[in-house]
Design brief:
Elements: E1 2-6, H1 10-19, E2 24-26, H2 29-34, H3 40-53, E3 57-61, H4 67-80, E4 84-89, H5 92-104, E5 108-113, H6 116-125, E6 129-132, H7 134-139, H8 144-158, E7 163-166, H9 172-181, E8 185-188, H10 190-194, H11 200-216
Helix pairs in contact: 4-5, 5-6, 6-8, 8-9
Bound molecules: erythose-4-phosphate.
């Protein structure tokens, strides 16, 4: 499973990159706003900075919601850097635009996916990634992980090449459960990745090893 970090925070992206397990980055307009990145030039500049830190795919979301403008904005974003993946919302004009980008060889991430039906459409349109938002489904008392399982089943039935990018991951158990189900990618906060490190027996065991070493070497 690929690990993407879901943030526009450069320090956190660097930290995840330094761990050596990062495969890419996803951003969205809310995450950019959270970092105080506003205005077209600053946003473009920020995407370039992210691409310099990581080696993998960097999702950059379009703001436009009508077909012509999505195409224009997506093409501009794709030209910024070879790592840019154009993130397009799951709306009618978005699906049409994904088909256009796919035919042109431009990578896409179909975002704001909340149902298996939407995931089928994204795959049929040729999306590189489909992003089901599991945390936001959990928030409304709907099983987000079940959606990942449904999409996995459907994509396997038809050998769709679209990668399932489990998005809106909130914690480490989401990461592990997505891996069990067979999500191709997960995107979450740095804490969800670093949480994988933790086990109390590791800490207790290490403390004991070091104490025993000190006893014999002091
Ligand atoms: C997906 O790419 C989105 O950026 C993201 O995962 C949304 O997560 P949230 O529900 O935590 O905002």
């Amino acid at each position: 499973m690929k690990f993407f970090i879901d943030t526009a925070n450069l320090d956190q992206i660097k930290e995840a990159q330094d761990l050596g397990v990062l495969d890419g980055v996803t951003t969205n307009p809310s995450l950019m706003a959270k970092e105080g990145i506003t205005g077209k030039e600053n946003i473009i500049d920020h995407y370039k900075k992210i691409c310099e830190i990581v080696e993998g795919d960097v999702s950059a979301e379009v703001i436009a919601t009508n077909y012509d403008d999505i195409i224009k904005e997506g093409e501009e974003l794709a030209k910024l850097h070879s790592q840019i993946v154009v993130k397009v919302p799951m709306i009618k004009d978005g699906v049409k635009a994904i088909k256009y980008f796919s035919d042109k060889g431009i990578k896409t991430n179909c975002t704001l996916v909340f149902s298996a039906g939407q995931a089928i459409l994204a795959a049929k349109a040729g999306a590189t990634y489909v992003s089901p938002f599991i945390g936001r489904l959990d928030d409304i008392s709907t099983d987000g992980l079940n959606l990942i399982a449904e999409i996995r089943h459907i994509y396997d039935n038809y050998h769709f090449s679209t990668e399932i990018l489990a998005a809106s991951v909130r914690h480490t158990m989401h990461v592990i459960d997505c891996a069990k189900i067979g999500a191709d990618v997960m995107t979450g906060p740095l804490s969800s990745i670093e949480g994988l490190l933790k086990h109390p027996l590791t800490d207790i065991g290490l403390e004991k090893f070091l104490a025993d070493y000190r006893k014999g070497n002091s």
